[in-house]
Amino acid sequence: xxxxxxxxxxxxxxxxxxxxxxxxxxxxxxxxxxxxxxxxxxxxxxxxxxxxxxxxxxxxxxxxxxxxxxxxxxxxxxxxxxxxxxxxxxxxxxxxxxxxxxxxxxxxxxxxxxxxxxxxxxxxxxxxxxxxxxxxxxxxxxxxxxxxxxxxxxxxxxxxxxxxxxxxxxxxxxxxxxxxxxxxxxxxxxxxxxxxxxxxxxxxxxxxxxxxxxxxxxxxxxxxxxxxxxxxxxxxxxxxxxxxxxxxxxxxxxxxxxxxxx
Length: 262
Ligand SMILES: Cc1cc2nc3c(=O)[nH]c(=O)nc-3n(C[C@H](O)[C@H](O)[C@H](O)COP(=O)(O)OP(=O)(O)OC[C@H]3O[C@@H](n4cnc5c(N)ncnc54)[C@H](O)[C@@H]3O)c2cc1C
Ligand code: FES
Description:
CATH architecture of the largest domain: 3-Layer(aba) Sandwich
Helix content: 10-25%
Structural class: alpha/beta
Protein name: Dihydroorotate dehydrogenase B (NAD(+)), electron transfer subunit
Keywords: 2Fe-2S, Cytoplasm, Electron transport, FAD, Flavoprotein, Iron, Iron-sulfur, Metal-binding, Pyrimidine biosynthesis, Transport
Strand order of the largest sheet: 4-3-7-1-2-6-5
Binding site for [2Fe-2S] cluster: 224, 229, 232, 248
Pathway: Pyrimidine metabolism; UMP biosynthesis via de novo pathway; orotate from (S)-dihydroorotate (NAD(+) route): step 1/1
Family: Belongs to the PyrK family.
Order of helices and strands: EEHEEEEHEEHEHEEHEHEEEE
Bound molecules: flavin-adenine dinucleotide, FE2/S2 (inorganic) cluster
Number of strands: 16
Radius of gyration: 18 Å
Distance between the termini: 33 Å
């Protein structure tokens, strides 16, 4: 069950341009959370911004009761959040949403991360490593300074293959292009994707063509975060029937072949 509470900030670091890693004392979330879920964070003490902001659970340490977030500053809410200092308290609600489905232990899986989309995938790879999966991470960003979490993935013994738009590190091009060249689709039990919409759409199309399963984590604009306001509706196709699902409640993770990409 999700809760609302004030979490004490334990640490804040800027890890890349405009990108912050933040640790909180949050034992209930650390205990309950599964990869792919998110917290809904109140950014600041005043009513501006009024709405909470959804941020994925980046990592948890269950024994220490610690929750970590990794976020990019894009507007007012994330700007205020990035200014919090150790000892400050941040009101949050969570864990929320439906997370990733784990494969059978020992499976060979692919993880595709674009930009800040790497954030929730670190927690996922942590759990995949616990069940001894063989993980290849296809990790992309604009340039080498913007590559995130490569060290964490390597530490968890995942194979990491990098793509940058400008070719300053690894393959020059996009993550889907890299996967087309590198990935052995027939041997991959499951592919997990989080990143820009265009990247998730391209990879979902490739997965459908290769007839292999995948899951994507959708980043929709959210109001309430708990299924009440319908502001996060996404079109999902199930047995040919298209219906609206709430990204905050039935998602944010959906099977890649069910998403109706706009
Ligand atoms: C399930 C989920 C998980 C997310 N996880 C992360 C993460 O781990 N790290 C990270 O950097 N970002 C993440 N985001 C995106 C993050 O929520 C937005 O960047 C943030 O809400 C922007 O708020 P702002 O006040 O800084 O920007 P503003 O542009 O001022 O925000 C205005 C409004 O738009 C909403 N909004 C703006 N951009 C987005 C967006 N991309 N997705 C959803 N709502 C948006 C805000 O919640 C707010 O209501 C996630 C989004 C979702 C839906
Ligand atoms: S954000 Fe309100 S229903 Fe999803």
